Amino acid sequence: MGYFAVAIALGIAARSAGIGAGQAALTSLLINASAGEYAGFALIAANASYIEVALMEAVANARYLLMSASLSQKLDTRTKWWERLLLGFTVTDEIFGVSVAVEGRLSPYFTFGTFIVATAGWTSGTFVGAVLGNVLPVRLLSALAVGLYGMFISVFVPEAKKNKVVACLVAISFAASYAFEKIPYIRDISSGIRIIVLTVIISLGAAIFFPIKDEKDENDENGRRDVKETKEAVENDA
Amino acid sequence: MTHNVFIYIACMAGVTYLIRVLPLTLIRKEIKNKTVRSFLYYVPYVTLAVMTFPAIISATQSPIAAAVALVAAMALAYWGRGLFTVAVSACAIVFVLELFTHPPTFLAEFLAKIF
């Protein structure tokens, strides 16, 4: 259901980029990645080169590299090579979240089932959005246009709440992105390239200066905190 | 130069599939390099933030409505609301505010009568 509503907004974006409803649905069926598709449509609207679009997809979907890498650790060791090839097709933010939450080793067929339900809503929503794009009044389009950004926000804000570094990065990203749109000469660079450049520079800088803690370290810290809290609790009781 | 939409889609699908499938088939051990892991961890959040602002401001008819929606969506997400609630609330805020900034004809006439 949530998929369907966001997909409608995506279909509208496709429409304004001059992409047909069938083509938009095909894109959703084959790619099923909101941010990647949206960025791709924006580049297509700007008549960008194929290489620019391919680069953009690589950057916008780079997180799937990490998710796939993490899933590869969790997969049932008996998973066959062709099941792995199929599974690669199904890695999205939500499906990854559901798959990781499974206890113990993951059977690829659990993920396949989830994927079929999700992608049906995703593809049909994109189609409906692209078809209705010219029927819907301007004010409705205007309202739906922020839906996609709302979705982006609901991905980075919760992480920023948990992690101070991510919170700072979000602020830096906002400011830098704004500056890049205003500064003469830089603002003439295509928006896709600006997004790629900003993402790589900011993420790389953060990775060098604020490397993430290993899961082991985190567990240790949590463990120590638990002990401390238990001690305090005992003292309070006394 | 005009480009073929199907070739665009093929480029997007090919790159995206490779990104997803290569780690699953090639990586059998955990990535040890701290910088690479940190980079991959930060990338999605930075990309999404860069794409959100200031683009959201020019996505609607009224920049003010979009700005209010941006702040409200961030507040809702901060208070733990889900993806769907945040996205729909942002849409609703823009829709309601634009009734005032860009009133439809009947509403404009009605407001003119009152004030």
Q: What does this protein structure show overall?
A:
The complex is a heterodimer of chains A (238) and B (115). Chain A has 238 residues and is mainly α. Chain A folds into two domains: 1-157, no CATH class; 163-238, no CATH class. Helices cover 80% and strands 0% of the residues of chain A. Chain A has twelve helices and no strands. Chain A has helices spanning 2-16, 21-31, 34-45, 50-60, 62-74, 81-89, 93-100, 108-132, 138-162, 164-182, 191-209, 215-237. In chain A, α4 (50-60) runs parallel beside α11 (191-209), α5 (62-74) packs parallel to α7 (93-100) and α7 (93-100) runs antiparallel to α8. Chain A starts with a helix and ends with a helix. With 115 residues, chain B is mainly alpha-helical. Chain B has one domain. Chain B is built from five helices and no strands. Chain B has helices spanning 5-26, 34-52, 63-78, 83-101, 105-114. The longest helix of chain B is centred in the first third of the chain and has 22 residues, at 5-26. Chain B is elongated. The model of chain B has no long low-confidence stretch (mean pLDDT 85). The chains are: A mainly alpha (238), B mainly alpha (115). The interface between A and B is large, with 97 and 80 residues.
Draw up the topology in text:
The complex is a heterodimer of chains A (238) and B (115).
Chain A: H1 2-16, H2 21-31, H3 34-45, H4 50-60, H5 62-74, H6 81-89, H7 93-100, H8 108-132, H9 138-162, H10 164-182, H11 191-209, H12 215-237
Chain B: H1 5-26, H2 34-52, H3 63-78, H4 83-101, H5 105-114
Helix pairs in contact in B: 3-4
- What's the pLDDT, averaged over the residues of chain B? 85
Strand content of chain A: under 5%
Structural class of chain B: mainly alpha
How is the main sheet of chain B built? Answer: none
The value of Rg of chain B in angstroms is 22 Å
Largest sheet descriptor of chain A: none
Indicate the percent of residues in helices of chain B. Answer: over 70%
Poorly predicted runs of chain A are: 216-238
* Approximate shape of chain B: elongated
Strand runs of chain A, count: 0
Enumerate how many helices of chain A there are, as a single number. Answer: 12
- Euclidean distance between termini CA atoms of chain A: 52 Å
Helix coverage percent of chain A: over 70%
Domain count of chain B: the total is: 1
Q: Output the number of helix runs of chain B.
A: 5
